[in-house]
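Recap quiz, item 2
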Amino acid sequence: MRVLTSEKIQMNASENIHPKRKRRRALSDVGVWVASVIVFIFILCALLPGWIAPYGPTELFQDRTLQSPSLSHWMGTDHYGRDVLTMVIHGARDSLVIGFAAVAIGLFAGGLVGAIAGYAGGVIEGVLMRLIDILMAIPGVLLALVIALALGPSLQNLILAIAIAAIPGYARVIRGQVKSTKQRPYITASRAIGLNPIRTFKRHIMPNVYAPILVMATVGVGSSLLVGAGLSFLGLGVIKEIPDWGTLLSQGRNYLTVAWWTVTFPGLAITLFVLSINIVGDYLRDRLDPRRSI
Amino acid sequence: MKRLVIQRLFSAIGVVLGACALVFLILYMLPGDPVQRMLDGAPADENTIMHLREQLGLDLPLHQQFLNYMGNLLQGDFGHSFVTQEPVLDRILEQLPATIQLTVMSMGVAVVFGVTLGILSALKSNTWIDFLVRVVSLFGVSMPTFWSGILLILLFGVTLGWLPTMGSEGFQSLILPSLALGFVSAGYIVRMVRNSVLETIQDPYVTTLRAKGLSDGKVTYLHVFRNALIPAITMIGVQVGELLAGAVVIETVFSRQGIGRLVADAIITQDFPVVQGVVIVTAVVYVLVNFTIDLSYSAIDPRIRRGAG
């Protein structure tokens, strides 16, 4: 194992970009581009599945069940005789809706709690953060599982369950951010000149919180989608004609030994989407948060 | 130090009690009637239903039910399964060892791979090794465990036939599930360790050590790693929760015994006392692990100890 040399450390610390490093940065920029394009394609699939998919989502090829991938069925067919590629494209809608909606709700609620706690401080902060601690005592997936079970199976309930389970994470980060921003001299200054607290918050604190929010939201879409797929896999998902990726995978699981394609491709879709959105999230983090740009 | 321990202990107990209350409230909000679920559609006359409601204490007002529930919990009474009528705690204790084995083994996988690759990645930062490690760790955090589990079954069980794909007999049956489960946590730990090592290297004390004439190797191995690994310990605490929750899916995929499987089955049969019991036990284990980590933290890092003094 080679150990870091002094020159190398200096290179890391200084803003001088070594030519080799520049090339590497260009390479990772390509990666971000590819990832963005993949995310974009998946979003297109979710918006206009009918235009992209080769067959209709309810079309059954009953004489061709469990066929391996071929030219007419690129990802093969499942046990009902449905075209797997078509199902994966149509499944993007519910999967992405779960990912994005859960983040939107969780971020709003968590952000609100975090911002109030961080800005108000004192007793309010103490009470809110103890509540968050309690939510955090139950691992996220399990919490989502209990809530989804209690609410009963539907898309809205699934989203709500995932969103609630994600609240503590968002609340803690935003509280931290608001608290540290609050101590900056310009906040004291804006208070001193008589700006009211709510305006101070909107004008001077919020802009400093946007960057971490954006990063968290991006990465959160991926993790929400993963939790959603997991719950669907356990049977807490939505039973519909057009299943999401998690349900699709759990349906294919029973035919694992005879038809690897029925589980491989829906899982690949989940992985590819989450991977791409994580790459975009990492890129945003590097760009927006100078402290982490290593 | 003593004061710190007591303070943390009380807050841990408070959090656990709060979590119990939370689970109760979530399940109390249920639209369905537990009695109907217990009967599972079997015909029953008014009297039987009334009797059952009374027996379960469901005729009492909410606060009374809550106090009974908490009281029973504190005495180790987690209620009875709707399906088998067995005490929930017995069922859980029966299944817990298998899950603990899986969690410990997965954690082993995660820590060994995570720390080694994280350090390697940081030391070779911006080389192709670093790039490769980062891609692999990104895959780790992006793959659904049930999918990677299924792929492992397909590859090592079905195609190559090297390892058993289901059951919980013997050490061999642990290998694939803990790889599938541990890989995710390994991904997070790699990212954490890499950043932490790179950040520590820039600390002023590293420059001082070097200025004193200490060799690069000594600086890295004696000083940088020690300090860089402290944040990784917190990460391990968080990952214990992820692993316990992940066991629900992985134990199902690999048809293993364990409390995760217990929950997965209870979801299908709508056996709420079992779900409730497992969630509470998991929360207790999780809080306990993090409490221990919190304390070890202050034992490792003198700054924290003094700060609290």
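Chain A touches chain B through 60 residues (CB under 8 Å).
Chain A has one domain: 28-292.
End of item.
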